[in-house]
Amino acid sequence: MAYAIARLKKLKFGNLAGSASHTSRERETPNADLSVENIRFIGSNDPESRLEDLVMAKINEVSQHRKIRTDGVYCVEMLLSASPSYFRASCPNQAGYYEQNKLDVWLEATHQWLSEEYGSRIVRAELHLDEVTPHVHAYFVPVDDDGQLRCKHFFGGRQKIQAFQDSYYQTMRLIGLERGLKGSRAEHEDIKDFYRIVETGRNLEVSELNLEQIKAKAADRDRAARQLQQMEATARELAQANELLQQRLAQLEKEKEKYRQQTQQLRDLALENVAWELGLDEEPSQSNRWVGHGHIIDINGDKFQSASPGVEKGNGAIDLVIQVNNYNLRQGLAWLNDRFGESGAERAAIAAVKKQTADILQTEPAPKFVPPVEDKSKWLAVHDYLTHFWGLPSNFVHGFHQSGLIYADSKQNAVFVMRDLNHQIKGAYLEGSEFKGLTIGSDRTNSWFHFQLGERGTSKVEKVVLCSSTIDAFSYAMVEYSKTGSIPKQRTLYMALADPKSTPVERLEHIPQIKTAFNSDEFGEATALAVKKLLPHARRSRPKALSWNQELLLEKSLQQQQQQRKSEVDLSL
User: Fold this and answer.
1) Which of 239, 308, 395, 476 is 20 to 30 A from 194, alpha carbon to alpha carbon?
2) pLDDT of residue 201
3) Is the dihedral of CA 350, 351, 353, 357 positive or negative?
4) Cβ distance 489 to 454 under 8 Å?
5) Around Cβ 564, how many Cβ atoms within 10 Å?
């Protein structure tokens, strides 16, 4: 297998003369056959023509916007060649030999590629035939379309160098050359390394070599062995990646077929096929008209219209079967199962239900939530229940009752009004000595029991406290108040969130502070963790007791004990 070879060497200004003296054979070149003449096929053959002058003339065609750095890249030397087996397939180890027709084809393709890809930016190109394998040295001045010197624009980074090699390969493949493995672990060889590699092809006996040459050949064999190992490793990795890719493609094909079947299942049977099974025939003179059994039916997609007077329009396969055969629904489905199989009957049934659903959704308004009826005669009992059993301050409970967020129903339950974040009532939570839970019709996804406290009036909410229950939301606020002696300075929203599935992420993700103040039991910890995944900036706040209400009751009990001891001390005095 013969490969295309493309190498680069970036030249600073100080490197230009040295590179030119080598390629033009102005200095001695080891292993070069002086009897063989090299060919300069781009650029002047004038011996007085200097590479430095050609490069600077090209750069100075346009005024440079930036000063060229002294260590900048002025020129890029390209070395282009092919494996020895391409030039001399019958004897690849016979150094210096080449088949003229192969050389001519390769040189013409290379010359054409240089001209089309880089044009006048190539200021010199030479074919070397005096060494082991034919190769071309081409000098490219990296000026962009605006004439500015920008080497990185062409060869900045691995991807652009790979693109350069890809471009050369796209031309070389037309003459039968292969590209090396893209992404290979093999290290990039620069031009000086190339010389050492091609020299290994010289047909010399070991007895004719000196010690340095023997060492060089041994090093080159080691390099070749390493390259082979690297290529084999790359090939194995590519094979494994290809196998994984094939497995993934097979999986995607299965998923595609699954989705195709699911999509097919959602489509009704073609009415033309059903009409044919029913014994109707399409009328030749009028497209989409089916006749038979005393019926004249016009089919239009998934709808049909009977030409018989007094017969209504129909939709779908089931309607058509029922109308033509005078069946009821059960009989119609049984007939479809007999003619189209179970999957066909299911398709017809699904389509019919979808149609009925669409009709209902267009005409039937969504039910509105109706909150429990307030029973004012039961409020005192509910007030006592909240203050004595749960330990909530009386003035606090009274204030929320006045605002309409808490009231009593006819069964003496405390009704906690649930609202969305635009304050629309969409549910209610009942808390009583014998029952607790949501009222029928409550929207538990888009409404919550919540309230706000803060000194900043109607300013935007800056902090949100998420609690396990309505009672805990009140209790947290009271515990916080007992510690600070005042309501929060920040506008704070307290919310009862029983399940993380109902977290209003889009409304809370921009709030600066989120507290997950759930109970300190296993369920509370799991809920806090779930909310943390939804709102990464949320911070955990645990009660000292199992719940915030228990902590409130403990604080209240301690205060009562302290007051009692103080009273006893006062009496003793």
Assistant:
1) 239
2) 42
3) positive
4) yes
5) 10
Q: At what angle do helices 211-265 and 191-199 cross, to 10 degrees?
A: 110
Please count the other Cβ atoms lying within 10 Å of the Cβ belonging to residue 370: 11
Stated length of the chain: 573
pLDDT of residue 404: 95
Beta-carbon neighbour count of residue 266 at 10 Å? 11
Helix locations, 326-467, DSSP H:
329-363, 379-384, 394-402
- Give the three-class secondary structure for 517: strand
At residue 290, the pLDDT reads 92
pTM for the full model?
Answer: 0.51
Contact 52, 13 (CB under 8 A): yes
Name the strands in the sheet holding 289-292, side by side, starting at the edge strand that comes first in the sequence: 281-282, 289-292, 295-300, 303-306, 314-315
CA-CA-CA-CA torsion sign (39, 45, 48, 50): negative
Which residue segments constitute the domains of the chain, with CATH numbers given?
A: 4-203 (3.30.930.30), 271-363 (no CATH), 376-558 (no CATH)
**In the numeric block, which tokens belong to residue 21?**
């003296």
pLDDT tops 70 at residue 228: yes
Cα torsion 390, 394, 396, 401: sign: positive
3-state secondary structure (DSSP) of residue 438:
strand
DSSP code of 260? Answer: H
Burial of 452 (0-12, 13-18, 19+ CB in 10 A): middle
pLDDT of 550 above 50? yes
Half-sphere exposure of 420 (CA within 13 A, CB side): 10
The pLDDT of residue 241 is 83
Give the integer Cα–Cα distance in Å for 520 and 511: 24
pLDDT in the model for residue 219: 62
